[in-house]
Write a structure and sequence with these properties.
single chain, mainly alpha, Tetracycline Repressor, domain 2
Length: about 210
Protein backbone atom coordinates (compact mmCIF):
# COMPACT_ATOMS: atom_id res chain seq x y z
CA UNK A 1 0.00 0.00 0.00
CA UNK A 2 1.28 3.46 -0.94
CA UNK A 3 4.22 1.85 -2.73
CA UNK A 4 6.67 3.84 -4.87
CA UNK A 5 6.50 3.38 -8.62
CA UNK A 6 10.00 1.96 -8.62
CA UNK A 7 12.96 1.51 -6.33
CA UNK A 8 16.02 3.44 -7.46
CA UNK A 9 18.99 1.22 -8.31
CA UNK A 10 21.71 3.62 -9.45
CA UNK A 11 23.45 5.95 -6.96
CA UNK A 12 22.18 9.09 -8.68
CA UNK A 13 18.61 7.77 -8.75
CA UNK A 14 18.83 6.76 -5.10
CA UNK A 15 20.05 10.23 -4.23
CA UNK A 16 17.11 11.77 -6.09
CA UNK A 17 14.62 9.50 -4.37
CA UNK A 18 16.16 10.25 -0.97
CA UNK A 19 16.06 13.99 -1.71
CA UNK A 20 12.34 13.76 -2.48
CA UNK A 21 11.67 11.95 0.80
CA UNK A 22 13.77 14.42 2.80
CA UNK A 23 12.01 17.33 1.10
CA UNK A 24 8.69 15.96 2.36
CA UNK A 25 10.17 15.76 5.87
CA UNK A 26 11.29 19.38 5.77
CA UNK A 27 7.92 20.57 4.50
CA UNK A 28 6.19 18.75 7.35
CA UNK A 29 8.56 20.46 9.78
CA UNK A 30 7.98 23.96 8.41
CA UNK A 31 4.43 23.91 7.05
CA UNK A 32 2.75 20.79 8.39
CA UNK A 33 0.65 18.41 6.34
CA UNK A 34 -1.32 21.32 4.88
CA UNK A 35 1.75 22.40 2.92
CA UNK A 36 2.56 18.92 1.65
CA UNK A 37 1.81 18.72 -2.08
CA UNK A 38 3.69 16.99 -4.85
CA UNK A 39 4.55 20.36 -6.41
CA UNK A 40 5.92 21.64 -3.10
CA UNK A 41 7.90 18.44 -2.53
CA UNK A 42 9.43 18.59 -6.02
CA UNK A 43 10.35 22.25 -5.63
CA UNK A 44 11.93 21.66 -2.22
CA UNK A 45 13.86 18.66 -3.53
CA UNK A 46 15.08 20.62 -6.56
CA UNK A 47 13.59 18.20 -9.08
CA UNK A 48 10.88 18.49 -11.70
CA UNK A 49 7.40 17.25 -10.94
CA UNK A 50 7.93 14.69 -13.70
CA UNK A 51 10.98 13.34 -11.90
CA UNK A 52 8.98 13.01 -8.70
CA UNK A 53 6.27 11.04 -10.51
CA UNK A 54 8.89 8.69 -11.90
CA UNK A 55 9.38 7.42 -8.36
CA UNK A 56 6.12 8.12 -6.54
CA UNK A 57 2.52 8.07 -7.81
CA UNK A 58 1.27 10.64 -5.28
CA UNK A 59 2.16 12.48 -2.09
CA UNK A 60 0.82 9.63 0.06
CA UNK A 61 3.47 7.32 -1.41
CA UNK A 62 6.16 9.90 -0.59
CA UNK A 63 4.83 10.20 2.94
CA UNK A 64 4.73 6.41 3.35
CA UNK A 65 8.34 6.23 2.17
CA UNK A 66 9.26 8.85 4.76
CA UNK A 67 7.56 6.90 7.55
CA UNK A 68 9.27 3.68 6.45
CA UNK A 69 12.62 5.46 6.40
CA UNK A 70 12.11 6.82 9.92
CA UNK A 71 10.99 3.42 11.18
CA UNK A 72 14.07 1.76 9.67
CA UNK A 73 16.20 4.39 11.43
CA UNK A 74 14.46 3.62 14.73
CA UNK A 75 15.17 -0.10 14.37
CA UNK A 76 18.82 0.58 13.53
CA UNK A 77 19.19 2.80 16.61
CA UNK A 78 17.58 0.14 18.80
CA UNK A 79 19.82 -2.61 17.39
CA UNK A 80 22.85 -0.44 18.10
CA UNK A 81 21.63 0.16 21.67
CA UNK A 82 21.18 -3.57 22.26
CA UNK A 83 24.57 -4.41 20.77
CA UNK A 84 26.41 -1.75 22.78
CA UNK A 85 24.83 -2.69 26.11
CA UNK A 86 24.84 -6.49 26.19
CA UNK A 87 27.23 -6.45 29.14
CA UNK A 88 25.88 -3.30 30.77
CA UNK A 89 23.68 -3.32 33.89
CA UNK A 90 20.02 -4.00 32.98
CA UNK A 91 18.84 -0.52 33.95
CA UNK A 92 21.47 1.08 31.71
CA UNK A 93 20.52 -1.23 28.85
CA UNK A 94 16.85 -0.26 29.29
CA UNK A 95 17.71 3.43 29.31
CA UNK A 96 19.75 3.04 26.11
CA UNK A 97 16.73 1.47 24.42
CA UNK A 98 14.45 4.25 25.62
CA UNK A 99 16.91 6.86 24.38
CA UNK A 100 16.93 5.16 20.99
CA UNK A 101 13.15 5.10 20.95
CA UNK A 102 12.90 8.80 21.68
CA UNK A 103 15.76 9.94 19.48
CA UNK A 104 13.60 10.86 16.50
CA UNK A 105 11.39 13.01 18.71
CA UNK A 106 14.34 14.75 20.37
CA UNK A 107 16.20 15.46 17.14
CA UNK A 108 13.22 16.53 15.01
CA UNK A 109 10.21 17.09 17.28
CA UNK A 110 7.95 18.78 14.71
CA UNK A 111 8.59 15.99 12.23
CA UNK A 112 7.83 13.39 14.91
CA UNK A 113 4.52 15.11 15.61
CA UNK A 114 3.51 15.48 11.97
CA UNK A 115 4.67 11.98 11.03
CA UNK A 116 2.68 10.41 13.86
CA UNK A 117 -0.47 12.20 12.72
CA UNK A 118 0.16 11.44 9.05
CA UNK A 119 0.82 7.79 9.80
CA UNK A 120 -2.65 7.46 11.27
CA UNK A 121 -4.15 8.73 7.99
CA UNK A 122 -2.26 6.29 5.75
CA UNK A 123 -3.78 3.15 7.28
CA UNK A 124 -0.50 1.26 7.56
CA UNK A 125 -1.80 -0.92 10.38
CA UNK A 126 -0.18 -4.15 9.20
CA UNK A 127 3.22 -2.49 8.83
CA UNK A 128 2.85 -0.85 12.22
CA UNK A 129 2.00 -4.19 13.85
CA UNK A 130 4.97 -5.86 12.14
CA UNK A 131 7.24 -3.09 13.40
CA UNK A 132 5.96 -3.56 16.96
CA UNK A 133 6.63 -7.31 16.77
CA UNK A 134 10.15 -6.75 15.45
CA UNK A 135 10.83 -4.27 18.24
CA UNK A 136 9.50 -6.75 20.81
CA UNK A 137 11.83 -9.48 19.56
CA UNK A 138 14.70 -7.00 19.67
CA UNK A 139 14.17 -5.94 23.27
CA UNK A 140 13.15 -9.33 24.67
CA UNK A 141 16.57 -10.20 26.08
CA UNK A 142 16.87 -6.83 27.84
CA UNK A 143 13.34 -7.18 29.25
CA UNK A 144 14.19 -10.63 30.60
CA UNK A 145 17.28 -9.26 32.31
CA UNK A 146 14.95 -6.95 34.21
CA UNK A 147 12.18 -9.51 34.73
CA UNK A 148 13.15 -13.17 34.11
CA UNK A 149 9.49 -14.22 34.01
CA UNK A 150 8.80 -12.01 31.00
CA UNK A 151 8.09 -13.52 27.60
CA UNK A 152 7.44 -12.18 24.14
CA UNK A 153 3.99 -10.91 25.10
CA UNK A 154 5.49 -8.84 27.91
CA UNK A 155 8.06 -7.46 25.48
CA UNK A 156 5.18 -6.48 23.16
CA UNK A 157 3.50 -4.77 26.11
CA UNK A 158 6.68 -2.84 26.91
CA UNK A 159 6.82 -1.62 23.30
CA UNK A 160 3.16 -0.58 23.48
CA UNK A 161 3.65 1.26 26.79
CA UNK A 162 6.71 3.16 25.58
CA UNK A 163 5.19 3.91 22.18
CA UNK A 164 1.94 5.13 23.73
CA UNK A 165 3.64 7.58 26.07
CA UNK A 166 6.12 8.84 23.46
CA UNK A 167 3.43 9.26 20.79
CA UNK A 168 1.12 11.03 23.22
CA UNK A 169 3.95 13.42 24.02
CA UNK A 170 4.55 14.04 20.31
CA UNK A 171 0.88 14.68 19.62
CA UNK A 172 0.77 17.21 22.45
CA UNK A 173 3.91 18.92 21.10
CA UNK A 174 5.94 17.97 24.17
CA UNK A 175 9.66 18.08 23.62
CA UNK A 176 11.46 14.85 24.35
CA UNK A 177 14.05 14.84 27.10
CA UNK A 178 14.95 13.47 30.55
CA UNK A 179 11.48 14.07 31.95
CA UNK A 180 9.77 12.06 29.25
CA UNK A 181 12.40 9.33 29.49
CA UNK A 182 11.84 9.10 33.25
CA UNK A 183 8.06 8.72 32.79
CA UNK A 184 8.49 5.96 30.24
CA UNK A 185 11.05 4.20 32.43
CA UNK A 186 8.76 4.32 35.47
CA UNK A 187 5.84 2.96 33.47
CA UNK A 188 7.90 0.11 32.04
CA UNK A 189 9.53 -0.80 35.36
CA UNK A 190 6.17 -0.67 37.14
CA UNK A 191 4.63 -2.99 34.57
CA UNK A 192 7.53 -5.46 34.75
CA UNK A 193 7.35 -5.57 38.56
CA UNK A 194 3.71 -6.66 38.36
CA UNK A 195 4.37 -9.66 36.10
CA UNK A 196 3.70 -12.93 37.99
CA UNK A 197 6.84 -14.98 38.55
CA UNK A 198 5.40 -17.87 36.51
CA UNK A 199 3.92 -15.75 33.73
CA UNK A 200 5.94 -17.13 30.80
CA UNK A 201 5.70 -20.72 32.11
CA UNK A 202 1.93 -20.46 32.50
CA UNK A 203 1.46 -19.23 28.96
CA UNK A 204 3.73 -21.92 27.56
CA UNK A 205 1.77 -24.60 29.43
CA UNK A 206 -1.61 -23.28 28.29
CA UNK A 207 -0.50 -23.05 24.65
CA UNK A 208 0.61 -26.70 24.68
CA UNK A 209 -2.72 -27.97 26.01
CA UNK A 210 -4.94 -29.77 23.43
Amino acid sequence: MHAPRKQAAQPRSRATQAAIVEAAARILETSGSAGLTTNAIAARAGVSIGSLYQYFPNKEAVLAALLRTKRAELLSWMRAAVSANQEAPPEKALQALLDAGMRHQVERPRLALEAEYAGQQLHLAEETAALADEMAQLILETVRRLQPAAGLQEARDVVAIAKGIINAAALSSEAGGPGLAARVRRAVRGYLREIPSNSADSRAASSSMP
